[in-house]
Each structure stands twice: as C-alpha cells, then as structure tokens.
Amino acid sequence: MSVAVTIEGVTKQFGAFAALRGVSLEVEPAELVALLGPSGSGKTTLLRVIAGLEEPDGGEVRFDDVEAHRLSLRDRRIGFVFQHYALFRHLSVADNIAYGLRARPRAERPSADEIRRRVGALLDLVQLVGLEKRFPGQLSGGQRQRVALARALAIEPRVLLLDEPFGALDARVRKDLRQWLRDVHRRTGHTTLFVTHDQDEALELADRVAVLNDGRIEQVGTPDDVYDHPETPFVCGFLGESNRLDVEVAGGQAFFNDKPIFAAPAHNARGVANLYVRPQDVRLVEPPNAHGLAGVVAAVRRHGAIRRAEVAVTGLARRLEVDLPSAVAPAVGETVGLKIIRATVFGSG
Amino acid sequence: MSEAALTPSPARPARRAGGARVRGESRLVQAILIAIALVFLLLVLGLPLASVFVEAFRKGWDVYLEGLSDPDALAAVRLTLLVAAIAVPVNVVFGLAAAWCIAKYEFRGKTLLTSLIDLPFSVSPVISGLVYVLLFGAQGWFGPWLKANGVEIIFALPGIVLATIFVTFPFVAREVLPLMQSHGTADEEAALTLGASGWRTFWTITLPNVKWGVLYGVLLCNARAMGEFGAVSVVSGRIRGLTTTMPLHVEILYNEYNTVAAFAVASLLALLALVTLVLKTLLEWRYADHLSANGKH
C-alpha cells in the first residue's frame, strides 16, 4: 500500500526561530525521498510535522487526498524510525516489534497467533531471526536500527519516515545498511522519506533529493539533477565540493580579474556574479597563457582515490582545488594554467 | 543521597581501580582514616541505635510486650500505618504527575514548579504544620466555615494526613524526575506513532522506565511518613489513643518517665528504619545494575 504525500506551504515557528518557512513538496506513491540539509535547516521538523509529532503553524499535509490534521496520531499510521531508535528497553525484540499491533483497539487487534506470525515475517525481513528474545541493550547499533525499522513496518504504515537512519552508526555498518534499506524499500514499496545531513547517503539512496536550507526547500530533483544542475548557490556549495570565484559576466563570458575564464552562454545577466566550479571540472593546461586563469601549485595531496592540487591564484583568497588525472604530476611551486570545463554561474543579487 | 543513587554503577569499579597505590597514600593513613570514620559512625549512629533496644528490653521481654500492647500504643501504630497508607499512594500519584509534566512538557513557570516541589525540604516541618493550623484551625481562614459544617481537620486524622503529605511530597517526584528527564520523550513518541493511546503509553512505556525510581521514592517517602514528628505534632493535638502517631506517642511516654514503653515503641520505629535501610540498599543494587545495563543507548 502506497500513498502520495503532499506538503503545501507548511510553516513552523519555535519561539523566535522559524524552523520551516513555507515548505511545499510532492512525494509520489512508493517513492524514496531524501530530505537533505545542514543541521538547523528544518529537515527533522518537516519530518515530525508529517508524522504528526509537531503541529504546523500554517499549511497542510495530505496523504493521497486525506488531510493529515484530521487524523489523530493513532489513525495516521506513520512508521517513524527515530534517530536513536527509541526502542523500548524493557521489552524484548519480539515485543518491541509487536507493540504497535498489540496497541490497536481490541476490535482491530490481530490474534496472538497472527501477531506471532507477523513478527516472525518481519524478523525475517530485517534479518534478525534468532534474536527475538534479546533486549535492546544486548544488540549492536545496526541491529537496533533494524529492530526499529521492523517495529515501524509492523503497523503497515501509510508512510515510512526515518530520522537520520544511519546517523548513529559507524561508517562500515552505514554502507551495508544503505544497501539493505534500498532493498527493503524495493520489497515493501512504502512511500518513504528520510532525513540526512550526509549527501552521499542522500545521493546514493534516494529516488529524489529535497535540499533544505534555513527552513526552505532550495531544490528538489533526482540525485543527478541536484548534483549536476544545482539551481541555487546553496545547493551548489552544499552538494559536493566547489570552488567559488567572484566574476564579472558580459556577453556570455565570465571574467575573473578582467581575464575571460569561462563561456557561460546560459547566463544572460550582466554584471557581478559567482562562479562555482567543482575540483573535477578544472584541467591543468600546459602553457599558462596570458588570457586564461593561471596560478602557482601550492600543494598536492591525496584525497581518497584521487590526487588533488591546491593552486594559489592571484586575486582569490582561498586556494583553488583541482583534481588531477593520474598522468599529471605538477611540482609544487610550478606555475600552471587552469581551464574550466564546466561551471555554474549565479548572479550575486 | 538521591544523586548518589542515580549515578550509574560504572563509577564503582573506577573507584576500586584507583586504589591506594594510585593516590599515593600510605596504608597507615588509609587505616587511620577508616578508623576515624568507623569510630564516628559508632558514636553517632551505632550507640544510640543500640541504646534504643537496650532500654526497650531493660526490664525483660514481658514488659517490652506490655508496653507495645498498651491500647494507646496500638492505636498509635494503627494511626501511623493509616496515615502512611494514605499519604504514600497520594504522593506517588502527585509525584508521578509532577515529574511527568516537568520532564515531558515545556511550559512557562516550569522552573518555579520544580523549586516548589523542593519546598517541603527547605521549610521547617513545624512551619509546614503551622500553615495548616492557620488555614484550617479554629481561628484559621477556613476555621469558621469548617466548624459550621462539622468538618474536623486540625486535631484530627485529615490534618495529620495533610501535614504528612506536605512533608513527604518531594520524595517520589525527586526520584522519578531525573530518570524521566534522562529518558527524554522519544520512547513515548514512538509508542504514540505506533498507535498506542496516551494511557497505554504511560502504563507500558513511561512507568516501566521509571519503576525502580518509583519504588525507591516510595521507600523513602514511607519511612519519612511514619517517622515525621514536627509537622504532625503541630496539627495532631496529641489526643492519646486518637491523634498520636508513633513518634508523638514515644515523646508522650518519655515525658511521663515511662522509659521502657517509650523505647519499646521507639524500637519499632528503629526497626522500620533498619528495614528501610536494607531495602534501600537492595534496591540501589538492583537499580544501579538496571540503569547501567540500559544506560548505553
């Protein structure tokens, strides 16, 4: 069972702090959407508003065409996985998972046998068979996470919401669980929203990513969309790494220190602008010509799988970061030319 | 005392590990310090406690039993048990309610409410009793109205219960509040999103999370309720066999030079203290293990 989630102009204020300033988002049935943003961007608040744990000050949330505020927390049937799981420590794994089924009104409550069968099926789904009698305190972080998910799935939720699902886990477990969550989502088909501040997680896992900043949604799109075609300076700076140059635009050309450095035909505006370029979109060119961008290599260091050069450019406060192909090995102190292959230009309003 | 109980047990092995060698004190210094502490405890706590039982049994078992089976003494025991039986459950409910609303909700005046809960600890018990006399006594604010309607509060059971509730109010709330605060609200929110009603959430999630704290609070609350002297003595009127609780009865007997009977009743109170102490230690044991076993997440 999958429902569409519609969020329309939701606002939420905590005292003087505006957590959400008019957020609208459409989530399609069975879609997996990431809410990505820095801390304080309002992503968790948005998740809690959808769950009904916070009352929005304005706007509304709809599940298909049911207005969420008409539903009590109990009737919303939201599967919510808390950041620190909030497992019931005095209950066993099986009792944790069965909690939602046992909490139903007597008329809707499944029989004890049925509950046992469903708990068994969920344990199977989250690969925890054999651990049903353990208590949360006896489980590893990854196992707790999976119990929390099974407990949320037990109530056959309309929508599955996960708050920083991998936030409390170490890097290795995170990677395994990402794959596994993707798999569970494919098998169960719940409309799913998850909150994360980790862009890798969002880009790898989600069908679409909503980037939040300062209580607003900056951009919604597929991972490729938001990464390759950022619509706002914030998205550009937040997703991946970028160098920022203050440029002047005239006649479809971006000028840095009066030298043309990048043809930006899409950018019609004239005047002062910001140019964002990713380290992998800059090439070192052999002879530094008088017209292009040039600088002095200040350092070369390893950055995971790639090598990266930091180039000091006259007129640029921060060093320009450039990813190097394996064949290129500039010496520190060498003067190099820089060619920008791809960049995004935003007028600085 | 409550803070010490709330420290999770890992502190203990740490203390054991950092023994004399680490701190650099000689064995002699250690022995002297321990000896001083033991002598002090013996003088201040051990001797008086022993003297209670020695005095009570001075004239033998028969006289001891006689002192206890005196109708007035029995009435005092009954009254004490009755007062505790009313005051303790009332304070469990109030304490849980107060701790719940302070720990789980944000509202104006929360700090004020928190310090109000502690008020009985900082007010002299005699004042606590006097307050009720001022309110409900014959010359008090509500005195004339109460008299006209034939309701007796001061110098009767209701006054004693009220004063006891006032004095023992903080015990349960104080034990439960830090536990609830450290647990936060995520467990309750999880239960609610899973479809549980507020009532069910309280019984199946909130209460089990704090049950050891509640038990501990009940124990302390009960010991104080049975042993309270100051507040109760102001409101009781000391009508023998009617409004004297055990501590008051002890004082009356003692003032009448009926030493053996006084110490016989006192021995019951001392026994209560010892039982409380043992139960408290057992609970702390259990309670600390419980906290540390689950404090990891």
Automatic annotation (TrEMBL), chain A:
The keyword Nucleotide-binding applies. GO terms for biological process: quaternary ammonium group transport. GO terms for cellular component: ATP-binding cassette (ABC) transporter complex. Keywords: ATP-binding, Cell membrane, Membrane, Nucleotide-binding, Sulfate transport, Translocase, Transport. It comes from the Bacteria. Pfam families: ABC_tran, TOBE_3. The keyword Translocase applies. InterPro entries: AAA+_ATPase, ABC_SmlMolc_Importer, ABC_transporter-like_ATP-bd, ABC_transporter-like_CS, Mo/tungstate-bd_C_term_dom, P-loop_NTPase, Sulph_transpt1, TOBE-like. SMART domains: AAA. Residues 5-239 form the ABC transporter domain. PANTHER family: SPERMIDINE/PUTRESCINE IMPORT ATP-BINDING PROTEIN POTA, SPERMIDINE_PUTRESCINE IMPORT ATP-BINDING PROTEIN POTA. Belongs to the ABC transporter superfamily. NCBIfam families: 3a0106s01 (TIGR00968). This is Sulfate/thiosulfate import ATP-binding protein CysA. It comes from Alsobacter metallidurans. The gene is cysA.
TrEMBL record, chain B:
PROSITE patterns: ABC_TM1. One of its GO terms (molecular function) is ABC-type sulfate transporter activity. The keyword Transmembrane helix applies. Pfam families: BPD_transp_1. The chain crosses the membrane at residues 31-54, 74-103, 115-141, 153-173, 260-279. Keywords: Cell inner membrane, Cell membrane, Membrane, Sulfate transport, Transmembrane, Transmembrane helix, Transport. One of its GO terms (cellular component) is plasma membrane. It is a multi-pass membrane protein. Coiled coil: none annotated. It is found in: Cell inner membrane. Residues 77-284 form the ABC transmembrane type-1 domain. Its main location: membrane. The keyword Mitochondrion does not apply. NCBIfam families: 3a0106s02, permease_CysW. PANTHER family: SULFATE TRANSPORT SYSTEM PERMEASE PROTEIN, SULFATE TRANSPORT SYSTEM PERMEASE PROTEIN CYSW. The complex is composed of two ATP-binding proteins (CysA), two transmembrane proteins (CysT and CysW) and a solute-binding protein (CysP). Part of the ABC transporter complex CysAWTP (TC 3.A.1.6.1) involved in sulfate/thiosulfate import. Probably responsible for the translocation of the substrate across the membrane. This is Sulfate transport system permease protein CysW. It comes from Alsobacter metallidurans.
